[in-house]
Amino acid sequence: MAHLLDHRGNPIQSAARSNVVPITRDGLAGLVNAATGAGTSIDRSVWDNWYFVPMSPQEIISGYRANWLLGKIVDIPAEDMVREWREWQADEGQIEALEEAERNFGIVGKVQEGISYGRLGGGAMLLGYGDANPEHPAPKATKDSLKYAHVFNRWELTVEEEERDVNSPWFGQPRFFRINGTVGQPRIHPSRMVVFKGARVPRFPGVTWEDYFWGDSVLTRVDRAVKNAIKANDGFARLIDEAKIDIYRLSGFMQNLISNEDAVRKRVQYTDAGKSSLRGVYLDKDDEFTQRQLSLTGMPEMIESLLSVVAGAADIPATRLLGRAPQGMNSTGDHDEQNYHTMIRSKQRLYLSPAVDLIDSALIPSALGTRPKEVSYKWAPLSLPSEKEQAETNKIKAETIKIYVDAALLPSSAIEKATQSMLSDDQWLPGLDKALKEAARAGELPGDGNETELGIVPVGAESSGKEGDRTSAGGGRTPETSSARRAANDAAVFFADAAPRPLYVQRKLLNASALIAWAKENGFSSTLAADDMHVTVLYSRSPVDPMKMGESWSGDDQGRIRVKPGGPRAIERFGENAVVLLFASWELESRHRSMVEAGGSHDFDEYHPHVTLSYELPADVDLAAIKPYAGALEFGPEMFEPLDLDWKRKVVEE
């Protein structure tokens, strides 16, 4: 007798003899239940498979044009990514030139169009340089080199084979593009194309090269959800006409309809007229009248649920996609809006910024002539506070600033500059930048922060010791106190507790006599005294712990440094009166940078070593005609000192 065997080869007892339905386990299919069919071909879940049915270009454009939901799903993110555009980080003249170039080429609108094409299935922007060889890599952009920017959708372009050379900078890009329908269809190098892709498609088996490069239309993923919502909405609309139906059962209706249709029609009309005017129905004894009322309960909620699925599939809040107010108890929509803005920010950084950077590689040099490293941009906020919210924020800021001022935690001049900068950045007071510049020219502001115009305390300088000895540029010395004694006293006070305080660090010019002799030979009627000439290493308005500044790593065994003869030199005017000798010194620049990194502050973006020569330049002296002093500059050890902002009235020249 043959026996049934299980998957291990063991005999299975007959079901008729054991009265037990056999259950077997298959290593691939999982649990198979003969009673319920679970795991077998009669279990309907085994037929649940995913299939990808691509949408043709005709289906994509038809859906985009014919259905308002699909159109908004494509356009809303594209509009929101460029709605507020960007804020240039550059000086005023550069910003004006860049914004004018953006307007001339229509960059914002064309970027939005490119994003929309990308979401529909792919698009690209062609940057035109006006040369005759688009097959070659894009030339280096120069002044006015960008001639045009044109946007194409995926189906207007043909991409050639993929560049698979891993050493090529264009690896993974088409070797060339072609514009369909153009004369000769010239080949275009990928460096001239800014590509806007659709939904990402992994390089899996069965994926074509073009689909992998361009991506899918975003409509593909939302198509089913949108169709379900539209069907439910249209079906509900049709049911409204059938929500209430009057039913007449008239004696001899069919016979009368055949023999005298007009009489039947009039009979119904009279009945309806009586129902409307007399609020009653009049029938023969054998006639009947009934009404069928269709219940629409739950239909609006079902449509709302389907539209929510659409919003989730599109990754757009229902409040933005459907233009409706937030729903739900105590709902304001703020959380949804915040999540949506986070998504848009992410797309700007990961998707839009690389494309815009390629555009800027041609736009910025074409507008400015070069591409300065300091020119950059940041994406503008997606939403702006209301006037009330802005006023409340400004009030809080003003109160906070007042607290800092009253507590004397920071120098007043530093707070003034920071407050002016904050007001300018916030654009709270229109025209503030221009007003501040005019006030500075009129001398209505405190020192502009130039270290030759600010309080410097060169304590410790040599002094003649004579009665009436002059004060230095910010030295703070008195006729009764020698510089050596003042230096000792100040050092003792300054380092008594190492408490943070404003710090000034300088090096005295040891061979100042040579520089003074050169100045007199070149028309300077007076100069600072030899013991007042110095180079500033650090001017920190912010309080710092001097002990954290460390010590200089350059200099001889006495802490002195020497700037060799020659090298970059210049004679310039700082502020309104100060005339200085600029020079280059890696030792001084590096030391200054390390002290700023250790907590010190600096009033300018850059630090330039210099020695102040004079504040009283004769009117007939032409600085442009003077050849800078080219001799060696020898400086003494670093001197750490407190600041004296009242230095200017103490300046005396000889």
Automatic annotation (TrEMBL):
Residue ranges of the region described as Disordered: 443-484
Keywords: Hydrolase
Keyword Heme recorded: no
Catalytically driven reaction(s): 3',3'-cGAMP + H2O = G[3'-5']pAp[3'] + H(+); 3',3',3'-cAAG + H2O = A[3'-5']pG[3'-5']pAp[3'] + H(+); 3',3'-cUAMP + H2O = U[3'-5']pAp[3'] + H(+); 3',3',3'-c-tri-AMP + H2O = A[3'-5']pA[3'-5']pAp[3'] + H(+)
Record-annotated Anti-CBASS protein Acb1-like N-terminal domain positions: 59-402
Molecular function in Gene Ontology: hydrolase activity
InterPro entries: Acb1-like_C, Acb1-like_N, Phage-assoc_HI1409
Start and end residues of each Anti-CBASS protein Acb1-like C-terminal domain: 502-649
Alphabetized Pfam families for the sequence: Acb1, Phage_portal_3
Similarity section: Belongs to the anti-CBASS protein Acb1 family.
Name used for this protein in its record: Anti-CBASS protein Acb1
Annotated organism of origin: Sphingobium fuliginis ATCC 27551
